[in-house]
Design a protein that fits this description.
The complex is a heterodimer of chains A (506) and B (364). With 506 residues, chain A is of the alpha/beta class. Chain A has helices at residues 46-53, 76-81, 99-104, 118-131, 146-159, 176-191, 203-209, 232-240, 299-307, 329-334, 344-348, 355-360, 378-391, 408-421, 438-453, 465-471, 494-501; strands at residues 8-17, 20-30, 34-40, 61-66, 69-71, 84-87, 110-111, 114-115, 164-168, 195-199, 212-217, 220-226, 258-268, 274-284, 287-292, 314-319, 322-323, 337-340, 426-430, 457-462, 474-479, 482-488. The longest helix of chain B has 32 residues, at 332-363. Classes of the chains: A alpha/beta (506), B mainly alpha (364).
Chain lengths: 506, 364
């Protein structure tokens, strides 16, 4: 292969944002008929690099060569013209349009202004057949499950003649079965001589599908591995810069009394359609209960109902036997609920505020942080913050640094430290490792297990099935607002859970 | 210099850049109008810093501007966009005046009472928009603008009708009866002279200066030392995060809205109790809108608002100077003020982004 002209060559790409070198002389090659995995921690510079390739950012220096020819890519239009296509994490589809309309959008064929559909239909049918991408052309995109919407995205770029396909964490929203289908598509496309760049942080998948693996850390290419020489610990170590323990020591404990009991919970979603339908389950002390499910099946509504929503359409939420649905957040926290929210920027941190303020948030209204006259005790707040920074190894210049200055992983540590410090009876962990790096993930897993060992009931909601499988003692599968199946962890497999996640076998 | 001090320095420099840039634009405009910049500078100088009286006038003018500024700033801190300071001080001033006219109290009690009633009046005028926001989610920008118009119409009617002090006197300017002497805001000028600052009697440096200083200190203390102030700032920064942390978001918003209205009630005190001695709906208008700009430039901090209100007072005086001594129209000052706000807001934003990037690098 080295003798052939590479399909794509990026050479010495450097991109500097104010104060941060996002890409530091990055060079990489993609051959025709190859799947290249791009791995690295959050903020390592993968997305920046791909945005440069797709014309969304202009590099400060460096060149891009497609089939040996130097090109200047000024916008996505240029990228598409050069045969570069990208499937974004958030799909760029028009929901009320049909699949066909979405695929041809922007490159419609028309005769005298009248859209023709026969010719594109035939062409698309071919693409579907060749690439394992069957979708019904007349269906409306908004009615399709996420996995099929992704197929539409892929068809869209294939229809535009893409030879170089970039996938930004494509499996984040998929069930294991859907991921397998996607990988079949990857292999088909590779066999047709296309080049695929696959961004992921799921190392199992990377090892499963990639031909070569390029690891990026802090804006630099650390190493490019051939599939044969790559192992999971090696990649993780290259990503983080130090050896990473991927195994979580998570013993099953004697589960105690029932801490959380949810019964017949019903709730309407934002659109007015039912988001929860008579959902029920319970979590006992010293166990981790994992909620597995494809995103958007009622997980957010469930967590909200437990954490803060005062009114639900029906059902009860009991903590230690006490109905909490009518209590406000402060009262619920007083009863021992702690919460790691799914979106730490939106719900978890006062970003412009100091770490000291963020560490005490939620307990800031109580002694010792205020005196009897309502005056804050800044000294005690700072002390508590320093203690937590040390105990949880938060990387920060000081407790006075604003929260927005920290990396995602460190921000998440702040939240976890704060919530753990309240010694909760029930810990709600909603997507606790989303967008954090391997090192921080390991830390977060340990903390959840710590909480369990300390006798807390832990409710883990995650879209990452591997996470659910390795942490949970019991697993409930949520589908369309209902727990449709419960498993003991030892008694099931990832495939079986994934099967139920798609609503099969009910 | 420590890094944190360096950041503070950068933040302070931003408004100065805005000020200098707008002064350069002013010079350009002066030249276009066909006036010599030297003459314009001289005119500005004469009206602002040439005499003690002028400097004292700037301070005097700054008092209501400062109060309007912290009223808006307090609301902004809680994420409440109180555009209704205007209506709140018209109504608050009226309620205060009623207390000044009709309550028979000794002076030591009367002056604090009128301050109290003015605050109550301002808060009352904020009450309905506040409830509409918290209970029904109706945006306060819309309701408070409406309430400004209602306040003006209401006090106009009250002063012309039920509370007119001119029954049968045949004057055209509608006004209330005179306030009792016990409620008058006396001048502190003699006190300043005793301290060695030679303020002439023509300038109004009265009790309202003390009111402003106390209000400024209390606002600072509440926001930055009290737990409830932390809640206010947290809600203003992110209602979602605050909700998750157990802060009673709606209660805080309601309270901050009313507090902002109460502070707004203080804006008209100087004119009613020190300058005129009666209430009329013709007291200076537009201070509520100035307050928005002042809060913005002062970054919603009481200390910042001290400076920005002094700056606004300076600009007003400078405008008069240009009007009186040169061909440059007074309205140029409004153009300049607008430009300055724009430039300061943009530089502020750029500086905070830069600092954020620096901090990020430091934390990596």
């Amino acid at each position: 292969m080295p003798t052939a002209l590479p399909l794509l060559r990026m050479e010495g790409i450097t991109k500097i944002f104010p104060g941060v070198v996002a890409n530091d002389h990055i060079s990489l090659e993609l051959m025709a008929g190859e799947i290249l995995a791009l791995v690295g921690e959050n903020g390592a510079g993968k997305s920046t690099l791909m945005k440069i390739l797709y014309g969304l950012y202009r590099p400060d220096s460096g060149e891009i060569l497609v089939r040996g020819e130097k090109v200047r890519i000024v916008g996505p239009k240029d990228a598409i013209a050069r045969g570069i296509g990208m499937v974004h994490q958030h799909f760029m589809l028009v929901p009320p349009f049909s699949v066909l309309e979405n695929i041809v959008l922007g490159s419609e064929t028309s005769t005298l202004g009248v859209l023709s559909s026969a010719k594109p239909s035939a062409e698309i049918a071919m693409l579907m057949e060749n690439n394992n991408l069957r979708v019904e052309l007349q269906a409306k995109v908004e009615e399709l499950p996420v996995g099929l919407q992704q197929r539409v995205e892929i068809l869209k770029i294939l229809y535009r003649g893409a030879e170089i396909l970039i996938f930004d964490e494509p499996t984040a929203v998929l069930t294991p079965q859907e991921s397998d289908e996607l990988f079949k598509t990857f292999r088909r496309m590779r066999d047709q001589g296309k080049g695929i760049i696959f961004i992921s942080h799921k190392l199992d998948e990377v090892l499963d599908i990639a031909d070569r693996i390029t690891v990026i850390r802090r804006g630099k290419v650390i190493r490019t591995l051939l599939r044969a020489e790559a192992t999971k610990p090696l990649i993780a170590e290259l990503m983080v810069g130090k050896p990473v323990l991927l195994h979580v020591d998570n013993p099953r404990l004697e589960a105690g009394e029932t801490v959380l009991k949810v019964e017949g919970l019903s709730e309407l979603g934002p659109s007015g359609a039912p988001a929860l339908r008579e959902l029920g389950f319970e979590v006992r002390a010293a166990e981790i209960y994992g909620i597995a499910g494809v995103e958007g099946n009622g997980q957010s509504e469930l967590v909200k109902a437990i954490a803060y929503r005062m009114k639900t359409s029906g059902g009860t939420v009991r903590l230690m036997g006490r109905e909490i649905s009518l209590l406000d957040v402060r009262e619920r926290r007083e009863l021992g609920i702690a919460h790691i929210p799914e979106d730490r920027h939106k719900y978890g941190l006062l970003l412009p505020y100091s770490l000291a303020d963020n560490f005490t948030l939620g307990s800031h209204h109580k002694a010792p942080y205020v005196n009897g006259f309502g005056v804050q005790n800044r000294k005690r707040i700072a002390q508590a913050a320093r203690a937590l920074i040390a105990a949880f190894d938060v990387r920060t210049p000081s407790e006075l640094t604003p929260a927005h200055a920290l990396s995602g992983g460190n921000q998440q540590k702040v939240i976890i430290a704060r919530e753990m410090a309240t010694k909760p009876k029930l810990l709600l962990a909603n997507q606790p490792t989303r967008g954090v790096d391997v090192g921080a993930t390991e830390f977060i897993y340990k903390q959840l297990v710590e909480a369990k060992k300390g006798g807390a009931a832990v409710l883990l909601v995650s879209a990452d099935l591997d996470e659910i499988m390795s942490l949970s003692d019991r697993i409930g599968v949520i589908f369309k607002g209902k727990i449709i199946k419960e498993f003991e962890r030892e008694a099931t497999t990832k495939e079986e859970v994934g099967f139920y996640m798609m609503g099969e076998g009910k | 210099m420590t890094r944190v001090n360096k950041y503070t320095l950068y933040e302070t420099v931003a408004p100065l850049i805005g000020f200098l840039a707008s002064m350069i634009i002013l010079v350009v405009i002066v030249i276009i109008v066909g006036e010599s910049p030297a003459k314009a500078a001289d005119a500005v100088w004469k009206m602002t810093f040439s005499k003690t009286a002028r400097v004292a006038t700037i301070l005097s003018t700054a008092i209501p501007l400062f109060l309007a500024g912290i009223a808006v700033a307090f609301g902004f801190r809680a994420g409440v966009f109180n555009i209704g300071v205007e209506g709140q001080y018209f109504f608050g001033g009226f309620v205060g005046a009623m207390a000044g006219i009709y309550l028979p109290l000794p002076a030591w009690l009367h002056v604090p009472s009128v301050v109290f009633f003015a605050m109550i009046g301002g808060a009352l005028w904020a009450l309905i928009p506040a409830i509409l926001k918290v209970a029904r989610g109706i945006h306060e920008v819309i309701t408070t603008i409406m309430f400004n118009s209602i306040a003006l119409a209401l006090v106009n009617w009250l002063v012309n009708g039920p509370f007119s002090g001119l029954a049968g006197k045949g004057s055209l300017e509608a006004q209330t009866a005179h306030i009792r002497p016990t409620a008058a805001f006396l001048k502190l000028n003699a006190g300043f002279r005793a301290l060695g600052w030679d303020v002439p009697d023509s300038v109004y440096l009265d009790y309202s200066l003390i009111v402003a200083m106390i209000a400024g200190f209390v606002v600072w203390f509440v926001l930055f030392r009290l737990r409830v102030g932390f809640d206010v700032r947290a809600v203003g920064t992110s209602p979602d995060v605050s909700l998750y942390a157990g802060i009673r978001v709606k209660r805080i918003q309601l309270g901050a809205f009313l507090a902002s209205g109460a502070l707004a009630g203080l804006v008209g005190l100087q004119e009613v109790f020190a300058i005129r001695g009666f209430y009329t709906y013709e007291i200076a208008s537009g201070l509520g809108l100035d307050g928005i700009a002042i809060a913005l430039i002062g970054r919603n901090s009481p200390v910042g608002v001290v400076f920005s209100s002094l700056l606004f007072a300076f600009l007003k005086q400078a405008g008069y100077g240009l009007q009186v001594y040169t061909k440059v129209p007074n309205s140029v000052i409004y153009v300049i003020t607008g430009l300055m706000i724009l430039i300061i807001v943009v530089t502020n934003e750029l500086v905070s982004r830069y600092i954020r990037a620096l901090r990020k690098k430091e934390a990596v």
